[in-house]
Amino acid sequence: MSARQWFNVHSWAGLFVGALLFVTCLSGTLATLSHELEYLSDSQFRAISDSGDTDFAAIERTLNTHYPGAQVMYLARHKQDYLATEVQLKIQGSFRFVYVDGATGALLGEGPWARISRFLRNWHMTLSMGWTGKLIITSLSLLLVVLLVSSLYVYRQWWRHFLKRPAALTLCKRNSWSDWHKLLGLWSYWFILVMALTGLWYLVEHGLQTAKIDHYVAPPPAVTQLANQNEKSTRPPLTLSAAYQAAKQAFPSLDIRYISYPQHSHQAIQIRGYNDDILLRLRANKVYLHPATGAVLGIQKGEQLPLVPRLKDTADPLHFGNFAGLGTKLIWAFFGALMTFVSGAGVVMGWLRVRRKTSAIRWLGVSGVIAIALVLASVVATSMSFSVRNVPAQLFSPVLGVEK
C-alpha cells in the first residue's frame, strides 16, 4: 500500500466513530481515578488510618451497633489503603453502602448505590446499554489496532521525532494540531497498544460469554456438591470475623480484602484477596467456605491458574493500571489523557481539512451521526440507570445486632 492509502485507512479508522472513540477514552481515563475522585469529593470515602491491616472484628462490632436488623451482602477493601472499606448492606429490602475505616472499624458514612465510580464504570464499560453496549465498546479495539498499524506507515521515520518541538497549538491551524497529534501519539503508543490488546481480550471474552463457553476455573467439587444438596441449613450463617479466621487459617499468606455472602445456605461464602502475585485481580485468589460451618470447601491460587483464566484475571489490572498503588493509576490516567487528546485532535484535524469543501453533517456521514447519537444516548441511559441496585429476596447472612 502507498503512503496515501495508509493515510486514508488511518483517517477512516479515526473518524469512523470518532466521537464514540473520544468519549470512551475520556470515560476510561476518569474511571481509572474514579475512587480517587470520590476520595476528594467527600470525607466518608477516606480511610482514617493508613494501615494495611483489616480489623474484621471491629468492623463487625460497628455494623452490629449502628445497623441492627441489616444483613451484609459483601465487604470490600480497596488495594489502596487510603480509601474507605465498603460494606454493602440489605436493610429492610433496600440497599445501602456503609463506609468504615478498615484498620479500626470506625464508621465513616453511608450512601446509595449511585456514586461517581458507578457512573463512570457503567458509562465506560457498556454505555449502560447491556450486551449491545459492551459489544460496541470492545469492538473499538479493532479500530485501535488499525490506527496503531497504519500510523507507522503514515508517520514516516517516526522514530526520529520523539523530541521534535511541535508548533504552538492554534485552534484553526491544522498543522499545529497535526504536530501535537503525532508527538503525543508517539509517546503514548505503548499505552494505546496496551488498551488495544486488553480491549481485544474483552471482545473475545464477550464472545465466549455469549456463546456460553466455559473459559474460567470451575468451582471446587465440594462447592458443586453443596449446591446440589439444595438443603436448608439449621445452623446460623457464619459471622464476618469467623469467616475471616477460617479463610486465614486455610490460606495464611492471603491478604483478605473481600468477603461475599451467598443468597442460600447451599452456596459457599467467597473470600478473596491478594497473594503477592503480579498483575492479578482480586478474584484470582479465593477461599470457598461452608456458609454455616466455616468448613473449607476449596482454595484457588492465582499462581496456579491456567493460561486463559490468567489472561482473564490480568486484563483488568492492566487496562486500568490498578496493580501497584496510586503511582500506576496516575501514570495510566496521564497517558489516558494523552490518548484522549490524540483521539480528539484527529477528529479536529479531519474537520479542518475539509471544512471549506463540505458541511459538518456530510463530513460526519452516517457513522459519525450514529456515533454522536450513541454518545448522547449513553449519557442519558447512564444517568437514569446508575442509581439502580436490586437486592436479593433471600440472603444467607447474619442478621446484625442479634445476640449469637
UniProtKB/TrEMBL annotation:
Pfam families: PepSY_TM
Transmembrane parts of this sequence: 12-33, 135-155, 183-204, 330-352, 364-386
Organism: Pseudoalteromonas ruthenica
Record-linked PANTHER family: IRON-REGULATED INNER MEMBRANE PROTEIN-RELATED (PTHR34219), PEPSY DOMAIN-CONTAINING PROTEIN (PTHR34219:SF8)
Keywords, alphabetical: Membrane, Transmembrane, Transmembrane helix
InterPro entries: PepSY-ass_TM
Protein name, entry field: PepSY domain-containing protein
